[in-house]
């Protein structure tokens, strides 16, 4: 298994209610998994735990040959050593850097010519070569999203994390970008975890859907298996399957 | 198995810097407390019996009267400018902030000069209109005069904070009141004042703290407040012990004011950050109303800025030849060096502490943040006695080290600029910190997190992402602190090295020597720098989208 997450548990401060509990997820390389749940279900926290932005109170996280978290040995790999790619809900493109500098940011350990080649490759991948010298505020929401994806994919991460990447986009734009996103991810073969509250997004984008409620996995299956049923918890937005 | 949870490296890194600074800040205050519980000197009985009541009454009368009048003036002007359109409104919007560029002691020199027997008002009345007036009506060197001076130069604190609140947070409520048929006066008293209570209280607390801190004006007018008493007890009676006791009582008064601020604010917290409301749409005033609004705000601007500036300019023209000399260049150099070094230290510490409170949420970082801004509420005279007691003690402990290092002098730190810079940093930390903290608040944590997921450590992330993004806030913090230090008087007077004169101390010295006209050039230099800084900030803030 490429991604192995076992018995993950997390609570904020000294609060007794666990935000995430007993969370297990195993993924094959190249697989796209959606974590689907309503707001407050703990799905974004799961992503932050995998990224290393929060520390779990218990559990194991391993990706490829690396162990990120192991509660037996007490090992916690710092966030910057994990080498993951993450696309934030609001993209978090550095506003004081150009598109090119944003994409190059994660490639600081690469050699000069390889860096330049990778930048060119990423810009071509997202069809934005002519935007290299633009600043984030000069781009539309959809373009910013593509840059954020390119920035996350550039260092060839073993796992890509997407946190509600369509929430800032208009509905008509979303459909096109969603298809593009799946195409790009599949083209690069990157293993991806995608967090969303929208069933339609989960259906279109993912190979497998994990339904989460109160920080626990309620169901898991292919989008077709899972979303044809009508047992999705109330309050989950998006088009009905 | 909760052992996985532990503080992050970043929190520990920033935390050690923050804790180190706060300890340094608390040491002088600790010394003050320690000295207060020592047995009193002989002078103290005399002070307690004959002087203390007078100090308390004068200090409280000034602070409370100025507070009340500043609320009246500040909120009225803020409401006029925010809710109505009338001729020159856009100019007055920033012009009404300008009195803040004139420190009250300089304002006092100018007004005394204007109103005394040889001043231009009485002279014009005598020579042009042949009118002799009773000096009673023109004597400003008393408590009502001081209240007028403080109010006219300090009301902008209330004006600025309240106006920002009206413009950004009260719009929906005010518009709702209008829709419900509420007239302007009723809206002002029933809606505007109550909802902006927290902002008004915040502003007026700053005004009162400035009054408690001031030394230059009350000394010049011969009013006995705690600030002047601390100086006199220390210098004239050479009794540091009693000065420390007075400082302790003054600190008690400050604490009462701060407590009252909490009570009056209630549960409302004043902040810009949640503001997403559109700005208030001003109504057009017509006829006599528009001229009344213009005259009222125009007169305030005239009294708070134009008149004193003209007076100073006139004096400046009479005296500039005598003042511009090598000595004046050294004044500017001294002021710039002292303010520059201190402002730089303030922003460095402020960045460390603000970053710590950002990465480590919880009670500990809250306590650290509270202590950091403590200095601004402590009057300069109190900080001065705390710092000097601390340095005197520290130097007696350092004697062995001096002997070992071959330093011949007994007092090295306390006769150098170090002591003054140390005190400035304590006093003005809050100004730099607030600016930088708001910068961090605006960017949030998302960008740092993005950088960390892209493989950068916390130090690199700080220099490559955080710092460039908050550089405007760092720059603002630096300038605000720099200007405040340039105007500062009580700390500078007490703690400067021997023969170290700044623009502020020189203006003070000339005024004390009754060479009032010579105060103009150093005063105008201070005002010019302050005014430019304030104008730039006004432009920056106006341009900000949120």
TrEMBL record, chain A:
InterPro entries: AAA+_ATPase (IPR003593), ABC_SmlMolc_Importer (IPR050093), ABC_transporter-like_ATP-bd (IPR003439), ABC_transporter-like_CS (IPR017871), ABC_transpr_FbpC (IPR015853), P-loop_NTPase (IPR027417)
Gene Ontology, cellular component aspect: membrane
PROSITE patterns cross-referenced by the UniProt entry: ABC_TRANSPORTER_1, ABC_TRANSPORTER_2
UniProtKB keywords: ATP-binding, Cell inner membrane, Cell membrane, Ion transport, Iron, Iron transport, Membrane, Nucleotide-binding, Translocase, Transport
Pfam families: ABC_tran
SMART domains assigned to the protein according to its UniProt record, in alphabetical order: AAA
Enzyme class: translocase
UniProt keyword Transferase, yes or no: no
Protein name: Carnitine transport ATP-binding protein OpuCA
Complex formation: The complex is composed of two ATP-binding proteins (OpuCA), two transmembrane proteins (OpuCB and OpuCD) and a solute-binding protein (OpuCC).
Catalytic activities: a quaternary ammonium(out) + ATP + H2O = a quaternary ammonium(in) + ADP + phosphate + H(+)
EC number: 7.6.2.9
Molecular function as annotated in GO: ABC-type ferric iron transporter activity; ABC-type quaternary ammonium compound transporting activity; ATP binding; ATP hydrolysis activity
PANTHER family in alphabetical order: PUTRESCINE TRANSPORT ATP-BINDING PROTEIN POTG (PTHR42781:SF5), SPERMIDINE/PUTRESCINE IMPORT ATP-BINDING PROTEIN POTA (PTHR42781)
Domain called ABC transporter: residue spans: 3-239
Gene3D superfamilies: P-loop containing nucleotide triphosphate hydrolases (3.40.50.300)
UniProtKB/TrEMBL annotation, chain B:
InterPro entries: MetI-like, MetI-like_sf
Lineage, highest ranks first: Bacteria, Bacillati, Bacillota, Bacilli, Bacillales
Domain of life: Bacteria
PANTHER family, A to Z: FE(3+)-TRANSPORT SYSTEM PERMEASE PROTEIN FBPB 2, INNER MEMBRANE ABC TRANSPORTER PERMEASE PROTEIN YDCV
Residue intervals passing through the bilayer: 12-37, 57-82, 94-111, 147-166, 187-209, 243-260, 291-317, 337-356, 368-394, 400-426, 469-486, 520-541
Keyword Phosphoprotein: no
Keyword Membrane set for record: yes
Domain ABC transmembrane type-1: 56-261, 332-537
UniProt xrefs under CDD domains: TM_PBP2 (cd06261)
GO biological process: transmembrane transport
Species name: Marinococcus luteus
Protein name from the UniProt record: Iron(III) transport system permease protein
GO cellular component terms, semicolon-separated: plasma membrane
Family under the similarity heading: Belongs to the binding-protein-dependent transport system permease family.
Pfam family, one: BPD_transp_1
Alphabetized UniProt keyword annotations: Cell inner membrane, Cell membrane, Membrane, Transmembrane, Transmembrane helix, Transport
């Amino acid at each position: 298994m490429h991604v192995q997450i076992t018995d993950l548990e997390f609570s904020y401060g000294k609060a007794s209610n666990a935000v995430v509990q007993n969370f297990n997820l195993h993924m094959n390389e190249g697989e796209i998994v959606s974590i689907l749940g309503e707001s407050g279900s703990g799905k974004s926290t799961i992503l932050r735990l995998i990224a290393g932005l929060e520390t779990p109170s218990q559990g194991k996280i391993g990706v490829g040959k690396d162990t990120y978290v192991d509660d037996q040995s007490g090992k916690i790999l710092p966030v910057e050593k994990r080498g993951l790619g993450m696309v934030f809900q609001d993209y978090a493109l550095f506003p004081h850097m150009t598109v090119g500098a944003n994409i190059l940011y994660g490639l600081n350990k690469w050699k000069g010519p390889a860096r330049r080649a990778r930048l060119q490759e990423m810009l071509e991948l997202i069809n934005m070569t002519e935007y290299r010298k633009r600043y984030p505020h000069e781009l539309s929401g959809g373009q910013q999203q593509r840059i954020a994806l390119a920035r996350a994919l550039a260092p060839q991460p073993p796992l890509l994390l997407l946190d509600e990447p369509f929430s800032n986009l208009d509905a008509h734009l979303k459909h096109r970008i969603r298809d593009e996103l799946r195409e790009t991810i599949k083209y690069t073969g990157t293993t991806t975890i995608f967090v969303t509250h929208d069933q339609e997004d989960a259906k279109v984008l993912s190979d497998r859907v994990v339904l989460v409620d109160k920080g626990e996995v309620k169901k898991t299956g292919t989008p077709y298996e899972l979303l044809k049923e009508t047992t999705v918890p109330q309050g989950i937005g998006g088009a009905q399957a | 198995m909760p052992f996985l949870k532990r503080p992050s490296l970043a929190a520990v890194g920033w935390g050690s810097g923050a804790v180190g600074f706060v300890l340094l800040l608390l040491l002088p205050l600790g010394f003050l407390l320690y000295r207060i519980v020592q047995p009193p000197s002989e002078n103290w009985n005399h002070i307690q019996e004959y002087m203390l009541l007078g100090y308390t009454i004068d200090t409280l009368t000034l602070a409370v009267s100025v507070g009340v009048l500043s609320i009246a003036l500040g909120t009225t002007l803020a409401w006029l400018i925010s809710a109505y359109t009338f001729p020159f409104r856009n100019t007055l919007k920033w012009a009404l902030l300008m009195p803040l560029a004139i420190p009250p002691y300089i304002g006092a020199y100018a007004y005394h000069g204007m109103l005394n027997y040889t001043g231009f008002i009485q002279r014009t009345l005598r020579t042009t209109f042949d009118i002799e007036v009773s000096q009673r009506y023109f004597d400003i060197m008393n408590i009502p005069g001081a209240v007028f001076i403080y109010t006219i130069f300090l009301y902008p604190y209330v004006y600025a904070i309240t106006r920002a609140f009206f413009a950004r947070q009260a719009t929906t409520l005010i518009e709702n009141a209008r829709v419900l048929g509420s007239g302007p006066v009723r809206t002002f008293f029933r809606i505007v004042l109550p909802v902006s209570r927290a902002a008004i209280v915040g502003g007026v607390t700053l005004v009162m703290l400035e009054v408690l801190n001031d030394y230059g004006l009350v000394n010049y007018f011969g009013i006995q407040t705690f600030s002047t008493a601390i100086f006199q007890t220390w210098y004239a009676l050479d009794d540091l012990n009693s000065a420390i006791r007075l400082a302790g009582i003054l600190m008690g008064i400050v604490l009462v004011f701060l407590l009252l601020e909490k009570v009056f604010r209630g549960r409302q917290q004043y902040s810009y950050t949640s503001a997403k409301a559109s700005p208030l749409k001003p109504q057009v005033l017509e006829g006599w109303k528009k001229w009344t609004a213009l005259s009222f705000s125009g007169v305030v601007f005239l009294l708070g800025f134009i008149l004193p500036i003209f007076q100073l300019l006139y004096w400046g023209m009479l005296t500039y030849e005598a003042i511009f000399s090598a000595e004046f260049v050294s004044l500017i150099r001294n002021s710039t060096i002292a303010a520059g070094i201190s402002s730089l230290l303030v922003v460095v510490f402020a960045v460390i502490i603000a970053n710590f409170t950002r990465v480590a949420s919880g009670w500990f970082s809250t306590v650290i943040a509270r202590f950091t801004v403590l200095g601004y509420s402590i009057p300069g005279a109190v900080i001065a006695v705390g710092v000097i007691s601390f340095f005197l003690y520290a130097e007696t402990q350092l004697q062995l080290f001096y002997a070992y290092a071959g330093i011949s002098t007994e007092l090295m730190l306390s006769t150098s600029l170090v002591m003054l810079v140390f005190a400035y940093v304590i006093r003005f930390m809050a100004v730099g910190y607030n600016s930088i903290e708001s910068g961090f608040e605006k960017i949030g944590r998302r960008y740092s997190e993005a950088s960390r997921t892209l493989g950068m450590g916390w130090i690199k992330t700080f220099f490559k992402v955080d710092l460039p993004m908050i550089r405007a806030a760092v720059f603002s913090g630096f300038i605000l602190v720099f200007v405040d230090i340039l105007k500062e008087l009580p700390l500078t007077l007490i703690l400067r090295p021997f023969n170290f004169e700044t623009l502020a101390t020189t203006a003070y010295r000339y005024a004390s020597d009754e060479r009032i006209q010579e105060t103009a050039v150093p005063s105008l230099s201070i005002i010019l720098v302050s005014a430019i800084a304030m104008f730039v900030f006004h432009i920056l803030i106006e341009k900000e989208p949120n």
